[in-house]
Amino acid sequence: MDLAMHYLPDAKTQEQTIEFGLVAQPVTLGLVKGDRPIPDVVLFTPELVGKLCEQGIRVFVQRDYAAHTSFTNMDYADAGAEIIDDFFALAEMSKVLVKFSPFTEEELILLRDEQIVISRLIINELTQKYIQLLKQKQAYAIAINLITDKEDWSELDNILMSSANAEIMNKRLGLFIMPLVEAVLYSKNFRVVVQTNPALLQSVFCFKGVLCNRMVAEHLDMMWKDILSLCFDLN
User: Fold this and answer.
1) What percent of the chain has pLDDT over 70?
2) Domain tally for the chain?
3) What is the pLDDT of residues 143-176, one digit of tens each?
4) What are phi and psi of 155, to 5 degrees?
């Protein structure tokens, strides 16, 4: 399955920007340290971060992001990232936040309004409070483990359950996550990028604070709206 279309800017500038209203802001990505890391496995290696920085993206990495691997904070800094200690500062500076494990409720409280967050989603661990926090922030939330292949298997689980070593697994994770993150980073309108991206249609479970995943809604006994109706004005 073609996971995502690439939204790369035409102009090659020293620092890419996106227009929000009348103010041009840099494209920014925050990588959040996971709570339950898999040994030697990361979504973003220093090499991948370097590629993003070469595109003019400002990448902020939470200190000790890859402490469970052989990668150091200095490796990420050498690749062009800025190392940040505090999650609140990371959220304030980043258009998109990516975390391998689910965000905690404490982290959701610190999000900016209309923040875009990308992570895994463990439905059995979700609470109504968790969704309410996303609603309060009018957040856009993407669950990468909801993206499926043609056989309806989770693309992420296919990678994680493979017998490949950590180095190969990290490369596969990079190929999996990079197009999706680029599409969201370079979008001026989240609704439009969802319309043109099958992976996002599968994986967005909260659209500007509105719960839009049936499995989550049924598990929590909450009201929901279909992502198609939210993005395509189907009434």
Assistant:
1) 89
2) 1
3) 999 999 999 999 999 999 999 999 999 999 999 9
4) -60, -40
pLDDT digits (tens, 9 = 90+) for 187-214: 889 999 999 999 999 999 999 999 999 9
Provide the CATH number for the domain around residue 134: 3.40.50.720
What 8-state DSSP symbol labels residue 32? E
Contact 25/17 with Cβ under 8 angstroms?
yes
CA atoms within 13 A on the CB side of 129: 8
In this structure, is residue 12 part of a structural domain? Answer: no
Distance CA 84, CA 60 (A): 6
Rounded distance between C-alpha atoms, residue 29 and residue 54, angstroms: 13
In a domain, 204, yes or no: yes
Reported pTM:
0.89
CA distance 71 to 42: 10
Alpha-carbon gap, residue 155 to 195, rounded angstroms: 20
**CA of residue 221 relative to chain centroid, distance:** 26
Task: With H, G, I as helix, E, B as strand and everything else as coil, classify residue 139.
Answer: coil
In a domain? residue 5: no
End-to-end CA distance of the chain: 29
Domain that holds residue 117: 17-232
